[in-house]
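COMPLEX REQUEST
Ligand: 4'-deoxy-4'-aminopyridoxal-5'-phosphate
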Amino acid sequence: APRTATWTHVDGEWLSGNPPLIGPTSHAMWLASTVFDGARWFEGLAPDLDLHCQRVNRSALSMGLKPTKTPEEIEALAWEGVKKFDGRTAIYIKPMYWGEHGSKGSIVAVDPDSTRFALCLFEAPLGNGKPGSLTVSPFRRPSPESAMTEAKAGCLYPNNARMITEAQGRGFDNALVCDPIGNVAETASSNVFMVKDGVVLTPVANRTFLSGITRGRVIGLLRQAGFDVQEATLTVADFRAADEIFTTGNYSKVSGISRLDDREFQEGPVTRKAYDLYMDWARESVER
Ligand code: PMP
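STATUS: Structure written out below.
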């Protein structure tokens, strides 16, 4: 049973709880033709919800699915849905597409005309804001020719799950993950930044990892505030030598990192500034 209040919009109806949507004949269940996106609603704000709704449609297209909703329709449904959570402080907004059937030519390829859509919303209280710890993962991101790395696809996440499980097994919160040739890509659930001598650096978007919506927003806000922000090829050694490390993602927004393996970090001024800039922008975007 779901742990929290959950509402799902599917085929024109709002259903509570955990309605059964896919069966043993579903292509999605058998061959993982699923894509999703995630946006966090909190304090009446859903920063960049429009971009998250656009991205889920792009993810669907890269999976060979055919989006059945426009981004604007998904956004409108999300705002309708959050009203069902009266008084709740934070809700995760998760639009999803999946394939029901194989194509005419092959049971392996998905039939784009069998694409289905659901929008699932559930209560997701904000975390405690405590900085997390990272360890370098023995597992890596796939290269773009080995997986649909440009899509937010469910089939990519078992690899992330084993990174997190392995890191947690060694007492860390999350994993610092490299790309196929060993440069830093991201963490197992967020994008990653480092600060060195006042310059803000983040791995260059080389298509092996999700160039996140929060990442783009934070780069823009920091540059507007006068910071030198560069996308660069960065090694684990660069991160170990950093003054500050922080992560970005829709779920936790901007979070500081307190430890990378045996190296400890204090929460630094740039991390704090990036957090404040993001929150101020999110609050102002509601007034606009
Ligand atoms: N990388 C991975 C693997 C993620 O799961 C996420 C969270 N969606 C991100 C990066 C951050 O992306 P965004 O800012 O668009 O949420």
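REMARKS: The CA atoms of residues 98 and 192 lie 29 Å apart. The longest strand covers residues 90-99.
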